[in-house]
Model the fold of this input.
Amino acid sequence: MTSRRVVVTGASSGIGAATARLFRERGWDVVGVARRADRLEALAAETGIDTFVADLTKQADVDALRDFVAGLGPVHALVNNAGGAFGLDSVEQSDADDWIRMYDVNVVAVKRVTSALLPLLRQGVAEGGSADILTVTSIAGHVAYEGGGGYNAAKFAAHALMAVLRLELAGEPIRVIEVAPGMVKTVPTPSTTTFPTRCRLKTSPRRSCTRSNSPRTSTSTWSRSSRWPRPPRTRSSAGPSRPRLSGRSRARGLDKREKRGSTVRRSRLLRPRSRR
Done:
């Protein structure tokens, strides 16, 4: 085996483009897949990778990708990076069509590409001993946040898809990996949602991201506010209460004091008394 080959989806920008560059720097043969032909051409001119323009939500494009890669040779790694988020509306007010688009690109497209390239990955195993399937999901597939109903649902499903695939491929030398990044600076596109910079996906149940429009600018600013404020904590000045000892206990020597300090030894108070 002279070289190893990796297929990277969503390679036109962001994590996908950085992944393609890194693999190429390490000597891999890279096939970059994306919808935007102009960005793929620029990446190919920069790095020398092979590119393929495809909409992975269409089975015909995925089949064409499989045939193209098969002509190059076996595959040793697959990076499922393509995905997207559409809308920040609530579950009640969000558009169901946006949910379908998110599920199609984040879940069904991953299934399509994985199913199409698994035979080529098994060929790579026959040559090189092992192969890898890495899927870039999101922290949104592990932690919910307000306004992310459709994206949360899609990424939770992608997380479950990888868990099932890992079980189904147990015993084969094909490693299944999931990477769930948080907020990442990438190139926004008209078809994807740009999340606010200060709105973290790792919000606790007592914290939420709220939107406030600034009167001085046309853009929106984001701040974190408490949705369920905790009641104020009060401490007693008298300190924690201590159990009182009866006169009989003192007489039996259960309330002895140490020679140094004034700490009361109470361990014997917790022992049950034996009855005879």
Remarks:
- Helices lie at 14-25, 37-47, 59-72, 96-128, 149-168, 247-251.
